[in-house]
Design a protein that fits this description.
By secondary structure, the chain is of the alpha/beta class. It has 2 domains: 166 residues, VC0802-like (2-Layer Sandwich), CATH 3.30.2130; 211 residues, HUPs (Rossmann fold, 3-Layer(aba) Sandwich), CATH 3.40.50. The protein is 40% helix and 21% strand. The strands form 2 sheets. Strands 1, 2, 3, 4, 5, 6, 7, 8 and 9 form a 9-stranded mixed β-sheet that branches. It has a 6-stranded mixed β-sheet with strand order 14-13-10-11-12-15, sandwiched between helices. Strand 11, helix 6 and strand 12 form a beta-alpha-beta unit. The protein binds adenosine-5'-triphosphate and magnesium ion (MG).
Length: 393
């Protein structure tokens, strides 16, 4: 069966009242931009309560579906046959052809579900359900009707055109990116932060990202890995602006001057400060990290409190209550896992204490930071000045 169109289903959430048009327009725009990854020419159009993608020339079905499955806001993708409005006698034949072409093996139970949006159509939906069922049973005696739990639901939608479909492929759900502001993701090369970015973006949030690079302690491959991860997340979130910050001197200063067991916490606090500065400068409303309670010493609830103390922006940590295995499963699903586990060192693993504090006290940490007082402002300024910006998608 060759389909020329897809019917896009989206959840009603966020689509009430005046918002509905904003939501639909942003979703259409995001679909157009996702389809730029696919060869072919597509027309994305809306009709009340529905979005349609028409394929205007030859296209690759699998690639197109895959691209659509990365667009947040979509809950279902239905390959659909579009036929011009016509009387029931002609439509009957189209219906038989549709079922014949769609299913080689007719050994299944079905139900017909008609929606009559075009109230001019001379038959009512209930009548059509009954008639269509009878015609199909007649044409294909192997078929059986099951009105409660049909294996196949055959949809007929009567609009200006008539739409026939019976397959619904899952979309990623969520809200269209661009309906909910922008967040600054602290993106390391690990497993957790790309998942965190995905989860927040799923709620309609645009992403920017910041990576703290520490050459020569970290390699060019470690940086490339973060760039690759940003691109993988961008398949869902749309283009990501990645800010790469040269963090080496700050890290070395902490390492040389402060108590060894506090270095990770101190590093994390300076990262959060810079991230918040970038968030403010780039019109983001929140920071996003991949932290999860208790995963490592710097993520005990005490450490998180101390890290959080430098931020006035909200910090979203969508992995906070997830076990590692749950995060890994999501990373596999969104295809960041393979890249995340490449063995390149990250800056937190290069400078790591043997016995890091697990219950840091804010006063102690602030006292340690005071040891850097004479140079830290200059170092922060330098780090920010060396910012490298890449737009990735
Ligand atoms: P991840 O798997 O995301 O790297 P992790 O388990 O390795 O997380 P940490 O290294 O403690 O945990 O980092 C906690 C969070 O801090 C990360 O999820 C990320 O949001 C941020 N982070 C850590 N290192 C960096 C870095 N070099 N650049 C940007 N963000 C970082
Ligand atoms: Mg990490």
């Amino acid at each position: 069966m060759e389909y020329k169109s897809f019917l896009i289903k989206y959840a009603e959430i966020g689509t009430k009242g005046k918002n509905r048009y904003v939501f639909e327009d942003i979703l259409c725009k995001n679909i157009r931009s996702a389809l730029k990854r696919v060869d072919g020419k597509f027309l994305v159009r809306k009709e009340y309560g529905r979005i349609f993608v028409d394929c205007m020339e030859d296209y690759d079905y699998d690639e197109t579906v895959e691209a659509l499955q990365h667009v947040f806001g979509i809950v279902g993708i239905c390959p659909v046959v579009v036929i011009p409005n016509q009387p029931w006698e002609t439509l009957e034949k189209e219906l038989i052809t549709f079922v014949d072409d769609s299913y080689l093996d007719k050994n299944f139970t079905f139900k017909v579900n008609c929606r009559r949006i075009n109230k001019e159509y001379p038959m009512h939906s209930m009548e059509i359900n009954v008639e269509a069922g009878a015609i199909l049973l007649d044409a294909f005696p192997e078929l059986k009707v099951d009105v409660h739990q049909p294996e196949v639901m055959i949809h007929i939608e009567l609009r200006d055109n008539i739409y026939l479909y019976s397959v619904r492929l899952p979309g990623p759900g969520g809200l269209p990116v661009g309906t909910n502001g922008k967040g600054m993701l602290l993106l390391s090369g690990g497993i957790d932060s790309p998942v965190a970015g995905y989860l927040v973006s799923k709620r309609g949030v645009h992403l920017e990202a910041v990576y703290f690079d520490a050459p020569p302690h970290t390699s060019p491959q470690a940086k490339q890995k973060v760039i690759d991860l940003a691109k993988l997340v961008a398949r869902y979130s749309g283009a990501v602006t990645l800010h790469i910050i040269h963090f080496t001197e700050i890290q070395e200063a902490i390492y040389q001057t402060c108590p060894e067991d506090e270095i990770t916490i101190l590093m994390r606090r300076y990262m959060m400060r810079i991230a918040q500065y970038l968030a403010e400068k780039n019109d983001c409303q929140a920071l996003i990290t991949g932290e999860s309670i208790g995963q490592v010493a710097s993520q005990t609830i005490y450490s998180l409190q101390v890290t959080n103390a430098v931020c006035s922006y909200p910090v979203f940590r969508p992995c906070i209550g997830m076990d590692k295995q749950e995060i890994v499963s999501l990373a596999e699903k969104i295809k960041t896992y393979e890249t995340s586990i490449l063995p390149y060192e990250d800056c937190c693993t290069t400078f790591v204490a043997k016995h890091p504090v697990t219950k840091p006290k804010l006063a102690d940490i602030e006292a340690s930071e005071a040891l850097l007082a004479d140079k830290i402002d200059a170092l922060l300024r330098q780090a920010i000045e060396t910012e490298e910006v890449r737009k990735l998608w």
